[in-house]
What does this fold into?
Amino acid sequence: MYTSGRKAAAAGSFHNFHMHGTWERFQICSKWVGAMAHDEPTKASGPNKLVVRNIGLLLSGDLRSPILDADTVVVLDGRIAAVGKEKDVDTAAATTTIDAKGTALAPGLIDSHVHPVAGDWTPRQNQLGWIDSCLHGGVTTMVSAGEVHTPGRPKDVVGLKAMAVFAQRAFTAFRPGGVRVYAGAPVIEHGMVEDDFKELAAAGVTILGEIGLGSVKDGKTARQMVSWARKYGIQSTIHTGGPSIPGSSLIDKDMVLETDADVIGHINGGHTALPDDQIVALCERSTRALEIVHNGNERAALLTLRTAKDLKKLGRVILGTDSPAGSGVQPLGILRMISLLSSVGDIPAEVAVCFATGNTAKIRNLDCGLVAPGRAANFVMMDRAQHSAGKDLLESIQLGDLPGIGMVIIDGAISTQRSRNTPPATTVPEVVKH
Ligand SMILES: [Zn+2]
It folds into this structure.
């Protein structure tokens, strides 16, 4: 195992990787810690090749064909190279081989709505390690809806821009447990002009935090700023529903429609939902993404789902947790949403998985979320939980149980094996060659 004492200390939070003590893992994790890159030794051999074979159920993340007729995935240097039957794909010279043992492989889950602050700490519930906990719930990618819980969050234009650039840089360089956090999501305030959005985009900012959490609470100003943001490639999300915490405020359907942000953030409220007729109106009259969150109103979530289904617009449904929130961090929040929408909402489990993977990747322009060649090799491997009444994974979810996670892979590297947070999976994959 290659580590000096200093490096081992610097990489202390990556114990999952060092536990296994392999060079490949060290190299991957050092990629996630920019400060360590300068003295990273070079690797002499060929590409890093991961083969996952004997997959019993392959969930694609793609609504058009959510189950693939394939049992093997081949990954080269963190990207999916091939998906197919074992006899039809090139499995030779793998550096790592995983026997899935007939369990399911799905794209790593994407949480479309989180509020990170710094590192793997949140002051909202004064909790450490919350992102790593979500990794154990199958989440491999998170999208910030604003670093709004930052104590003393600056609200002047220079300050909010600086904070956004800081968060974007910090979470690009630091990946708790390997989880990719897309952060640096400024909350718009009165006084911002077009050049501010141009400057933010040039500095690497790609998303706005929830509109409505700042001083801009009128549709006209919000719409203008959203269009400036869009002009420079910055995506926007709007808070929907009643105030989340003291200090935030009601955003109703008229403001959501007028603002026309890319994502109707927590359309089921965060937690207080709009009246039913307003939720239905948003589904019908807007073409934007319908984001359903765990920290929201479950009945309103089901109303949104049913309305989207009737409108044949399930491709617009994406999932988030809104954690950390008043109801806390929900490490299994995305899995719980999949199970809720599938069981009570009467949606096939493989379709519900798409809401948290392919749909979100498409709407958020991410390179993950699908099991398809060229995509980032982010996978969650699952099986029915031990003693679930469901006879297989999909039936167990449709009965309202949570799946058991046996392994999570990010960028082609194993981030965790049996989850410490889900109910135990009946069968877990095994690393057979390393
Ligand atoms: Zn909100």
